[in-house]
Structure prediction request, 518 residues.
Amino acid sequence: MNVIEKLEVLADAAKYDVACTSSGVQRSGKKGQLGAAHQAGCCHSFTPDGRCVTLLKVLMTNACVYDCAYCVNRASNAAVPRTAFTPRELADLTIGFYRRNYIEGLFLSSGVAGCPDRTTELMVQALRILREEYGFRGYIHTKTIPGTSLELIDELGRLSDRLSVNLELPSKQSLGLLAPNKSRHSILAPMRHIFESVAEDKESLALAQRRTTVYREKRMARKTRAFAPAGQSTQMIIGATPESDYQILNLSAALYTQLSLKRVFFSAYLPVVADPLLPATDAVQLNREHRLYQADWLLRYYGFNVSEIIDEKNPFLAPDVDPKANWALNHLDFFPVEVNTAPLEALLRVPGIGVRGARLILRARRQSTLGEAELRRLGIAYKRARYFITMNGAYGGSGIDFSRDALHARLSAPIDGGRHGRRADRAVQGQMSLFEAVDAPPVLPEASPANRAALDVAFEAQRRALAQPAAIGAPARAGESERPPILGADTSPAECEGASQEGAPHGNAVCEPLLSVA
Ligand code: SF4
Prediction:
């Protein structure tokens, strides 16, 4: 294969990884070097100044020796052509695209070529060529392979802006069932190491900058790049296993509080390969993914905690209203909120008022008393907010029954007209392909009783497998003996120090989260 043919295969193989937005670094250009990284934005996301920033999103190789049941690159899938970049090819391609202004950075992931360390060495070589030979200062997000040795993660972190380790599935049992070559330890150990390295690096940097007496004799000369200055993120697949939103959000909260993750990405399970252990449904839970992102936003920016959003008795987010509206409907005694006097925390609880809108309200009300016209001018979604606010004593939703049922009916109806309505009209249902036009897959009305029954049927095979622990995590599953030859796999996983030793899940039905809130 020539480089362009490799690119077609390896860019297509990378399209299912969603954990690649937001750079979070500001690094301007420098004479004699190439590129710059600006705050936020990658892979077709928008920077604060409105620019769309693009990353080259590729795998180092799709010739993976692991056999994760849900993955198109799994070793037993003979249907995909296999290939690998050499480090030089990848670096030249990235620089070539950068110079042509096609991209502003690189998102690099990989299948496991032999073992995690061998794969990471290839990635490090490619990044070294980029950073040291070409002097590339653009944004680089690198995916860390579970089980990689900590020394190699150190090298990777010094060459990348962001690192991420995919959690893949929310519980130890599910991981053992669908990703038998990975384990809780092989995923969490690199995440902890990245967390500690970023923290240590920030401490030393802060000390040096403050010029304390600690460094008086010998001022620290920063010879190495900062360690992953944009932090780390992760990704979880939603809907491939039966864990509830309650479990997923608790796990996310633990990741934010214990490992300081910048983002937890949710990826609705897409049925791309067949496996008896995968859910017996073709439906893609995009609405559920969307609700999880909304809940995640509440955790990170709105001061909510998980128990305010969801509880064990109702472990799935409401499919018809967003989590903030659902909280408001369950706490009508908190409302109405007076927009001219309420503190920021109270404004942030009002459906239709976002973080930016709440801050604008605080600023605007110093100048004048706010009414409907002013709120609309500030970009508040007034049609939603009005049921929950007063404006100088006047209730915004007068004439409407202030009851849970009546408000629920209004909040679950599609937004009609206005700026927010026009944006909703433009939203396309279904999973968009990055590369070609496809028919949108069906969307399940998640969490409805009917759908819960359908999900019970879908996960029947997984439940049966969990009841027979000896069968889980065993190396030989259907099709494994017919694996295609692996390119670049010059080390078997068993020979590799970093290969998973854990993996067989417990045979009980209770899913053990990968990480719990301390
Ligand atoms: S390690 Fe698993 S998820 Fe990653 S490429 Fe290989 S089979 Fe796919």
About this structure: Residues 184 and 514 are 6 Å apart (CA to CA). The chain has two domains: 3-279, 323-426. The radius of gyration is 25 Å.
